[in-house]
Amino acid sequence: MQKTLSDLPQIQTLLGLPTIADVIARFSHAETADALREIIAGLRADLRAGRAPLFPDFQSMEFAEALSARIEVARAPSLTPVINATGILIHTNLGRARMAPQAIAAMQATGAAASNLEFDLATGKRGSRHSHVEHLICTLTGAEAAVVVNNCAAAVLLGLMGTANGRSVVASRGELIEIGGSFRLPDVIAQSGATLREVGTTNKTRVDDYARAIDADTAVLLKSHTSNFKIVGFTAAPDRRDLARLAAQHDVILMEDLGSGVLIDLSPYGLPDEPVVADILKSGVDLVMFSGDKLLGGPQAGIIAGRADIVADLKAHPLMRALRVDKSSLAALEATLRLYLPPFDPVQTIPVLQMLSAPLAQVESRAITLTDALTAKGVSGVALHESAAYVGGGSLPDQALPSFAVSLRMPDVSAQKLTAALRAQKTPVIGRIERDQVMLDMRTVWDAELPAIVAAVEQINRR
């Protein structure tokens, strides 16, 4: 007999069943009630739509087990590890840079016990959280002083609020960038309380353009590294050293937002246009801001480095408390920065730099291993391809890195459905779609992740 709305049981009745009481004891009354409401609501929606849903046996152990499984799924962590097979090394949506084991260990140690976050062990008095990484940053960049906030956007905002509030900021039209999340530099300047004075044109800006814009209200000459786009052809931009001399002549601050920022020369690995922070400061830039979780390879953080007097003012700014970095991020950043010092080689110890510098033969070998393993499991439609990987994270989006990828095709399964199935695995596998096939790029995959990929694809192939 076809069921009707009147056949739907009351939630309180279901909660009183002995089998459901066991579910309540295992989880909680509230979770069990919520799960039951969702099930009844689904049945009610089907009935009202004219569909004939199959009613479960609410008193059975099978229903109780299904209810428990539903609650387990709801309890599963929302933030979970995934396998990045996109070929984008610093994928913003996938958490940006992987951190080194030393950084993860430092976070665990700091989080598992009390720490000297703001306690001076030598004097027994209150200390500063800024002291834990400032010396390291100065050692690696040549800066007089440094401070860390929770991301680079915060660093730019604090830097401008602390130096140019109520005054003007001169910036080139060709450098008024927008990054992910609609973060627009002109909006940040306005939010800081400063007035933007645009100079030059989209493709050409000269020192004279900055010079003509400087007046009694000018506080900052602002440069921004346009790492996420390129203007080519008939272009011109002033040398930092010339801007530094101009800023000094007029007693204004030269500030640069790097966005990403690197501590070592990455040109041997295909990134010739990423300026090294130490070189920027040597050229005369007063203050530079860069990220901790991009090419530096650490946690999310915004690093401000440069003149001691400016940094001191920023440390004392009221906004600092709202933007300050937490203890776990500080621990991870300190551990990451130490990997740039001897006897360590950052290219060999920091994951994002390992991926960037990995020889093409090594990437190809990984792709061959995956192809052979999938073929041995009876997965058809597997092929090896030359590929192009990218740094990502707003850094040099058009700078391709040679790579190898494994393509997947399955009969009667579209590429869209296959990527969805890979995302639904216990350890989600995130690839990309090219020419109606799923591509798994091996430059962003570790050898240790290959078994999980094989297991995921094999399970999908069995369906």
UniProtKB/TrEMBL annotation:
Signal peptide: none annotated. GO terms for molecular function: L-seryl-tRNA(Sec) selenium transferase activity. Its cofactor is pyridoxal 5'-phosphate. It is an enzyme of class 2 (transferase). Pfam families: SelA (PF03841). GO terms for cellular component: cytoplasm. It catalyses: L-seryl-tRNA(Sec) + selenophosphate + H(+) = L-selenocysteinyl-tRNA(Sec) + phosphate. One of its GO terms (biological process) is conversion of seryl-tRNAsec to selenocys-tRNAsec. It is found in: Cytoplasm. The modification N6-(pyridoxal phosphate)lysine is found at K294. Pathway: Aminoacyl-tRNA biosynthesis; selenocysteinyl-tRNA(Sec) biosynthesis; selenocysteinyl-tRNA(Sec) from L-seryl-tRNA(Sec) (bacterial route): step 1/1. It comes from the Bacteria. Its EC number is 2.9.1.1. Keywords: Cytoplasm, Protein biosynthesis, Pyridoxal phosphate, Selenium, Transferase. Converts seryl-tRNA(Sec) to selenocysteinyl-tRNA(Sec) required for selenoprotein biosynthesis. Belongs to the SelA family. This is L-seryl-tRNA(Sec) selenium transferase. It comes from Sulfitobacter geojensis. The lineage of its organism: Bacteria, Pseudomonadati, Pseudomonadota, Alphaproteobacteria, Rhodobacterales.
